[in-house]
Amino acid sequence: MGLDHFVVETDPSCEDVRFLEDRLYEYNVTQTGVDDRQWLAIFLRDDQQTIQAPAFYQKLGYEVFAVLDEHPRSHQHAHWHKW
Predict the structure, then answer these.
(1) How far is CA 70 from the centre of its chain?
(2) 16 and which of 12, 42, 76, 82 could share a cystine (Cβ 3.0–4.6 Å)?
């Protein structure tokens, strides 16, 4: 499958979203064996809607071993490892 088959939509149809949700749910059932139709969403947000995780990971003993600047644009992407 070439990249021409991928489409980014900012306003997908309800049917498309439901199709995706159902496929993700089916996959999770096959991986976990849990079929309870319960939703789970986890959000980490501060007042600016950003994740401030470095101090959290450092407290757990993780260290940054690589940083990608401008990935995504105007941001940094840190790679953490626990030695």
Answers:
(1) 19
(2) 12
Does residue 29 contact residue 35 with C-beta atoms inside 8 Å? yes
At 80 the three-state DSSP class reads strand
Rounded to the nearest 5 degrees, what angle is found at the Cα of 49, between the Cα atoms of 27 and 59? Answer: 80
pLDDT digit string, tens, across residues 22-69: 998 899 888 888 898 887 766 655 554 455 678 888 888 888 888 888
Q: Are 81 and 57 in contact (CB under 8 A)?
A: no
Structure tokens at 78: 């840190």
Q: Answer yes or no: pTM beyond 0.85.
A: no
Backbone phi and psi for residue 32, each to the nearest 5 degrees, phi listed first: -110, -20
* Torsions phi, psi for 3 (to 5 deg): -65, -20
